[in-house]
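lol so apparently i was supposed to do this last week
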Amino acid sequence: MIRVRFAPSPTGMFHVGGARSALYNWALAERSGGRFVLRIEDTDAARNRPEWTEGIISALAFLGISGDNPVFEGPYFQSAYEAQHREAAAKLAADGRAYYCTCTRDDVKARTGSEHQGYDGFCRMRGLTEGAMRFRTPDDGVTVVQDLVRGTVEFPNEAMEDFVIARGDGSPLFVLANVVDDIEMRITHVVRAEEHLSNTPKQQQLWAALGVTPPVWAHVPVIVNEKRQKLSKRRDKVALESYREEGYLPEAMVNYLMLLGWGPGDDREIMPWSEMMPLFRLEDVNPSPAFFDEKKLRAFNGEYIRALPLPEFVRRCQAFLDPAWDLEVFGRVAELAQTRVAVLSEVKANVDFLFLGEPVFDQASWDKAMKAHADDILAGYAERLETVSFDTESLKTALDEVGAAHGLKLGKAQAPVRVAITGRTVGLPLFESIEVLGRERALTRLRAARERLRAGA
Ligand code: GLU
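anyway here it is w/ glutamic acid bound
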């Protein structure tokens, strides 16, 4: 059975790159009827925070990765397995595969004359019984890593120093803890970010020294921004949570993230999980850097939004609207909003005019729309609104006629009315909006806008 794991460290916001790795593991587990183990690597007590662990679990659930699916196992917490890590270190020492070392960094520098030389093996034969523990690496030959994404990667052993696996107080380092947990959890495939490729020859040595066949490795490509720089949390919007808060749908996120380094082999891009998952193969992951194109993600999201059945769209918008707003009223314009937004957070500004006593005037829109003739148009249209039959067609014809009387095309005549009604120059179709707003409220707004004009706003 394929057993994969996702092993994030809870040291910050959950990154879209982490989400992509998690999804690749999830796809692999799900399509093979295997298991996906969530292991929180929480051994760096100084940098971990419980809210980041919660953030990881909630972000994964948002993507559909949770215990609701029997493929999911965990979460396990690395800190709970320290005894096993220490035991493994002790075994390596007993087998002569690791040794104690008391050298400081300065000692090594003094002997080698360089900071970059790596450890010189000074304590290898000293037979010490305390200190940090170093793994005894082979002196020559190569460590060959077979990576399903990157192919065969060779690391000369000469360049691999005797690396530290446990500190002087016996606490394990990442490189060891990670391997011991993978062994204990019977992991068959390690699918993770490319930045860990450099740890892999060391870890492969550890697997072998602990007497276990190493897993299948797959290092997935880095994700870059439009300048081809690796996405960084200081520079780029990398937190999955930010996308969630902006109103990206999980299914659009999943779809887009899956395509960062992988494709179904034809031109298809918009594909639901149920279609992508069975096609996913690590062998098809492209090793070159993947460009995170937020514009494309927005376009994906817009498509997913438009594909939602209307009641479902309304339901999903709820979290992005004012809780005091009547969803039934929203439902009357929801379809108009659905075709116009790319993310759910944009819905609110499109429909707020319906719920507010008076619209929120955007000053730039106001200045743009309230030119000469504005007052005439508002006055003329208000007069017509008192009696016109209240349907989209008649509302439109009436404004068309008022505009014509002042030598204005409909588009020009609409601008002041739109701002008077909604507060902005862009938004939902005007006549539908007026219809839903109703005669009395529409009239009040036209009059209020005229007052404002007179007041010289
Ligand atoms: N805890 C490591 C990280 O977050 C994961 C290492 C791995 O996947 O092996 O980078």
